[in-house]
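Key result, reporting period 2: structure in, sequence out.
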């Protein structure tokens, strides 16, 4: 929501991330991020955690060229996650979303992400899932989240596969889900309804504004 708000209002990511975190403090943030958000420092802390990829999906949806998507993904990550792997994870996720929006096939998305970022996406989901463990790093979770999308049949199946990996489930579901919505073009109405029930009204207003401004369509939440 903070990243989305920044894009809608032309606000710098650091201020918006801190403002939203302080207003909603009990939401399961990583300890280093939460310490940063509550500090007086605006300096990044060289993280390669997957939070940078988790929060980047609005960037993938919000811009019309590959170049701007990659630049903006780096900006959104580097205010905290300025380690090369933290930036890489955000850029890979945002680019996958952008390519899906443009109508790329799964094979095209896979090939482009492998080529640009060196992630191994040749592995089968079925081979990963039985032995996969919690990993909150970009390099240890973003490729797996993308593979969950590649193996999916629809949006709900993508989310289920991301969670069923048994890793950092909520974050990986965010990464997979952004790509899946861009590719499958919609989220089932029941999932939208159940999610909106759990969100503050402020968030639903932000979502409605974002869809209208950047995706050119109204959503009634």
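The corresponding designed sequence is given below.
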């Amino acid at each position: 929501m903070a990243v989305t708000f920044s894009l809608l209002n032309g606000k710098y990511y650091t201020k918006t991330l801190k403002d939203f975190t302080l207003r909603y403090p009990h939401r399961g943030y990583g300890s280093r991020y939460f310490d940063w958000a509550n500090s007086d420092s605006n300096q990044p802390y060289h993280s390669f955690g997957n939070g940078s990829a988790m929060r980047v999906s609005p960037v993938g949806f919000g811009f019309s060229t590959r170049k701007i998507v990659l630049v903006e993904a780096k900006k959104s990550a580097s205010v905290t996650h300025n380690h090369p792997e933290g930036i890489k994870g955000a850029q890979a996720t945002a680019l996958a979303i952008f390519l899906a929006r443009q109508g790329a096939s799964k094979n095209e998305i896979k090939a482009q992400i492998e080529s640009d970022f060196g992630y191994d996406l040749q592995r089968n989901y079925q081979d990963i899932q039985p032995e996969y463990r919690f990993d909150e790093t970009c390099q240890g979770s973003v490729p797996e989240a993308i593979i969950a999308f590649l193996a999916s049949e629809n949006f709900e199946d993508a989310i289920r596969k991301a969670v069923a990996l048994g890793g950092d489930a909520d974050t990986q579901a965010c990464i997979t889900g952004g790509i899946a919505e861009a590719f499958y073009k919609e989220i089932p109405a029941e999932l939208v309804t159940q999610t909106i029930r759990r969100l503050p009204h402020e968030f639903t207003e932000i979502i409605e504004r974002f869809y209208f401004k950047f995706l050119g369509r109204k959503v009634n939440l």
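Residues 58 and 156 are 19 Å apart (CA to CA). The mean pLDDT is 96. This case is discussed further under Risks and Mitigation.
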